[in-house]
Amino acid sequence: MAIDKIQSESINLADNFAFTGTVTGAGGANTPYFQVNKTSNQTISHNSSTKLTWDNAVTQSSSAFDLTNNKFTATVAGRYLFAVRVGFYDSDNNLKRATLYNYKNNNNYRSTDFFMANGGIRNAPVYDIWIENVAVNDYFEIYAYTNTTDNGDCVVAGGSNWETTFSGFKLT
């Protein structure tokens, strides 16, 4: 660091610095982190809320996501960023409402809706991204709800196109 960058009592953080060595202690590890997806479809019955199952851990730190219980449990307290994308599909074009329910510690605390006022459609991708204060042992699950014009079932799409994913990581 150039001597002219040091002020009498502190470093001026508004200046630019060119480091030639290794900087340590800056930023964070952003762990734990996870990204899971579905590799196969899951049927969601008309007018019902169903917990989504996840069968593939794309990436994660220290087994952050439990695929047997389909939930993320925090091992480190902090502020986390979560993102979920669910691809709803009705082959009969009758999907009227698709809802994501985000559960924290077995309580529905947040939802995202897709709603067609008239008629139905075939595909409805529903997204949600949020920042959450998390304590150790807080856990998160995703539920899906559908409603169709013909009272039929829908599917939450799985497969190689990443139709349905859930991810999160510690920010601070």
Polypeptide structure, described:
This protein has 172 residues and is mainly beta. It has a single domain, classed as Jelly Rolls. The protein is built from no helices and 13 strands. Strands 1, 2, 4, 7, 10, 12 and 13 form a seven-stranded antiparallel β-sheet that branches. A hairpin with a 4-residue loop joins β5 and β6.
Secondary structure blueprint with pairings:
Elements: E1 33-37, E2 42-44, E3 48-51, E4 56-60, E5 65-66, E6 71-73, E7 78-89, E8 95-104, E9 107-115, E10 123-134, E11 139-148, E12 154-156, E13 165-170
Antiparallel strand pairs: 1-4, 1-13, 2-12, 3-11, 5-6, 6-11, 7-10, 7-12, 7-13, 8-9, 8-11
Gross morphology: elongated
Distance between the termini: 28 Å
If you compute it from the alpha carbons, what radius of gyration comes out, rounded to the nearest whole angstrom? 21 Å
The helix-strand sequence is EEEEEEEEEEEEE
What does the main sheet amount to? 7 strands, antiparallel
Mean pLDDT: 88
CATH domain class name: Mainly Beta
* SS element count, helices: 0
**Helix amount, in percent?**
under 10%
Tally of structural domains:
1
**DSSP, total strands:** 13
The CATH architecture classification is Sandwich
Structural class: mainly beta
Q: List unreliable stretches of 5+ residues.
A: none
CATH topology: Jelly Rolls
